[in-house]
Design goal:
The complex is a heterodimer. By secondary structure, chain A is of the alpha/beta class. Helices cover about 30% and strands about 15% of the residues of chain A. Chain A has a 7-stranded mixed sheet with strand order 1-9-8-5-4-2-3. At the A-B interface, helix 5 of A face helix 2, helix 4 and helix 5 of B.
Chain lengths: ~300, ~280
């Protein structure tokens, strides 16, 4: 978006946070319901937003309903603060929510809207994480009828998802779901945790921060309340595995910028054809480098 | 003998139904469509007992209501009236006063069904082993190694080749699909198994092998079965007792030999006489 862009005069009458107060109230009410029934997909009247469905309209409506003056906001897209989706959503929030600070630093944010990642740094109980969701229902891959899916959710019948895992193990000797790993919340509802990698699933379990999921196109809100169990669906005798990033020698790969060996790594080819790995969470990477430079500077003194 | 299933006065009416539905349909009218309200009396006043380890045959022409009975007992359709009691080892279940979750539990843990059309019983998106795994997973087991072992032994028992275990049943022959269905139905060792026209549409030699398999299973596991068919040969081979149905009513019931050798009702006589 053009940094010099200003809302046209006739649109300047929009209320704080773009959505009108009734819309925000409805979303908040559904957020409360979603928190009360952990993992349950609460239907809500998803509003038209001034951007296409699929650009994070669900997450944005949650953020706009929750944000208030004094909040500090961080927007992440695939772990980075500076990719297109994050930059534009942040700019939209700056335009429509005067008095709200934005930050790139995870620990400074009170509200974090994210797409495809949960920050590496552990969140606190003063923070709320909002995730953008394209497909809210994990059962959609095994049952096309929504009314039957609702019955399956109600009865806690997720055997067909497990059959899918069985088929995976038979065919590939391991579970091949890389993201959107079905996760059981508080022992009952299984939710689609949005396209976060398997690596991030353990972060949902007993998390200090409230995690909210908004699906704009599918018109659903669901939540993982703080300090709630979140267990990935697995078999008794086959443990859940996250991406381990070990190379051929069995050594954990490290980020080529900051050297971290505990973060989720993105893999890409440099111009000279060398394959390199880099932290997907850019803020985590930058902060590690800053700390490193600081201590190196102290060492020089 | 110990009873496992007691069906009392069961009936199913499709349509609005009126007070004169029952008295104006049936074999004596040659129709199960009520002339007053147009409702279809698919089954009326059905009562029978099923004992442990017994095979009960339900015989009748198309539209006589025999499959409707199985659908009601397997909770695919809700009955219009009547009741059925399932006597488990520990407790009695009044089938039609249970809630949906309890019905689902019984379906998954205590009943098995084999349909005429393998498409209904099998999920062709999963492998043969996966289909059995699905049934085991529905009944709360979640140990991959044990599920795989059980699927392997069940498929071996029903004579499905081991190398076919991880293939989709889509590419199997009709007889093989039926074997996978039987293996799936038996996965949870159900005390009651419903067979809905299992051999219809298969050629004679495959039919004979499937029927042999069913008899062997009945002797091995002591599973009580309800076999719905219009084929007198199947009834003669499988069932010890038989119910004959026409236009939604039971017109004759008794020992299979008795019914086939000495039919009392005119319709049954006609059926037996017209057998090839």
């Amino acid at each position: 978006m053009n940094p010099y862009y200003e809302l046209p005069q006739d649109e300047a009458g929009y209320s704080f946070g773009f959505l009108d107060e009734y819309a925000k109230r409805e979303v908040r009410r559904n957020i409360l319901k979603a928190i009360c029934i952990p993992g349950y997909q609460t239907p809500y009247a998803s509003r038209e937003m001034p951007m296409g469905r699929g650009f994070g309209t669900g997450g944005l409506q949650l953020t706009l309903s929750l944000v208030g003056r004094g909040d500090t906001l961080k927007v992440i897209d695939q772990g980075a603060d500076d990719s297109v989706n994050a930059v534009n959503l942040r700019h939209f929030l700056e335009l429509t929510c005067p008095g709200v600070d934005t930050t790139e630093q995870t620990q400074e944010a009170t509200l974090i809207q994210s797409r495809h990642r949960i920050p590496e740094r552990q969140l606190t109980n003063a923070q709320v994480l909002v995730l953008q969701v394209p497909y809210p229902d994990p059962l959609v891959v095994v049952e096309p009828s929504e009314s039957r899916r609702k019955i399956m959710h109600g009865e806690g019948d997720y055997s067909r998802l497990l059959t899918k895992l069985y088929e995976d193990i038979v065919r590939f000797d391991e579970i091949t779901i890389s993201h959107r790993y079905p996760t059981r919340i508080n022992g009952h509802y299984v939710l689609d945790p949005s396209p976060i990698p398997r690596f991030d699933i353990p972060k949902l379990n007993q998390s200090s921060a409230l995690t909210l999921f908004g699906a704009g196109r599918e018109k659903k809100i669901y939540a993982v309340p703080p300090y709630t169990n979140a267990e990935p669906l697995v078999f008794d005798d086959i443990a859940f595995r996250t991406e381990d990033f070990t190379d051929e020698q069995g050594v954990r790969r490290s980020c080529h910028r900051c050297g971290a060996t505990d973060s989720f790594l993105d893999e890409f080819n440099r111009d000279d054809g060398v394959r390199i790995y880099q932290c997907s969470d850019s803020d985590y990477c930058n902060q590690r480098i800053a700390v490193h430079m600081l201590s190196a500077g102290e060492g020089a003194l | 003998m110990k009873k496992v299933l007691e069906v009392k006065n069961l009936g199913k009416i499709y349509g609005s139904g009126c007070s004169r539905c029952l008295e104006s349909t049936g074999p004596e009218f040659g129709s199960n469509v009520c002339p007053h309200c147009g409702s279809v009396v698919a089954a009326a006043d059905i009562s029978f007992d099923l004992c442990a380890g017994e095979i009960l045959g339900i015989m009748g022409e198309s539209g006589s209501g025999k499959s409707t009975i199985v659908k009601m007992l397997f909770f695919d359709e809700a009955p219009s009236y009547g009741e059925a009691i399932f006597l488990d080892s520990e407790r009695q279940w009044n089938l039609f006063s249970l809630n949906a979750a309890q019905q689902r539990w019984l379906r998954n843990h205590r009943f098995g069904i084999v349909y005429q059309n393998p498409h209904l019983g099998l999920n062709f998106n999963f492998s043969a082993g996966g289909n059995i795994a699905e049934r085991l997973l529905m009944s709360d087991s979640s140990h991959y190694g044990r599920i795989r072992e059980r699927a392997r032994s069940l498929l071996a028992r029903t004579e499905v080749m081991a190398e076919r275990m991880d293939k989709s049943p889509k590419i199997f022959s009709g007889g093989m699909q039926q074997r996978v269905q039987i293996a799936k139905a038996l996965a949870t060792r159900p005390p009651v198994l419903f067979l809905d026209e299992v051999t219809t549409g298969l050629d004679l030699s495959v039919q004979a092998r499937i029927l042999d398999l069913i008899l062997e299973i009945q002797q091995e596991l002591g599973t009580a079965m309800i076999a719905v068919t219009h084929d007198l040969g199947v009834i003669r081979l499988l069932a010890s007792r038989t119910i004959v149905m026409k236009n939604g009513r039971v017109i004759e019931a008794g020992l299979t030999d008795q019914i086939l050798e000495d039919p009392q009702h005119a319709y049954t006589q006609q059926l037996v006489a017209s057998a090839l």
